[in-house]
Amino acid sequence: MTIERREPANTADERTMLEGWLDYHRETLAWKCEGLTDAQLRSASVEPSTLSLMGLVRHMAEVERGWFRKVLMDEDAGPIYYSDEDPDGDFHVNEEDSWEEAHATWRAEIDIARRNAAGFDLDDLSKGRSRRSGEQFNLRWLYTHMIEEYARHNGHADLIRERIDGGTGD
């Protein structure tokens, strides 16, 4: 499968632009993982870090779930990979973890995020609140934060991919 990334039009309206950039960054992460084996996707960046491409995808599944289900919809959606005992469980991958499962879970959370966001205007406040601050957020803030989150982790992904096979790119 070839990953296609499309930048939003230079003259798009605000919502189309925000959704377009978020999708662009989602596809960038998928592109950084494309064509690698499960073992390569599980390989850690540089010791002592356990950061891996598969861990990043699992983390972003948790992030999508947290913002678009827990905060936006006030849904009681439990964690997928982390726990109280292992708060960084999304990053902790082992031999049993597969790309097929991680990728499918991440894509499912993206689909749910899109459906949930479709019911809100950019200025609408979330139904839920942040666990940390207790604040509500409008959809515009959520989109902007998610773009920032993906962009930061795509930088990590670029470095990890370069270490695995020399692949680089924007």
Write the layout of secondary structure elements.
Blueprint: H1 14-33, H2 38-42, H3 53-71, H4 99-118, H5 139-165
Explain what the structure shows.
The chain is mainly α. Helix content is 54%, strand content 0%. The protein contains five helices and no strands. 29% of the residues are buried. The longest helix has 27 residues. The chain is globular.
The percent range for helix content is 40-55%
SS elements, strand count: 0
Q: Class by helix and strand content?
A: mainly alpha
Q: Low-confidence segments, ≥5 residues, pLDDT <50?
A: none
Q: Report the order of strands and helices.
A: HHHHH
End-to-end separation: 19 Å
Overall 3D shape: globular
Mean pLDDT: 95
Offer a concise description of the structure.
The chain has helices at residues 14-33, 38-42, 53-71, 99-118, 139-165.
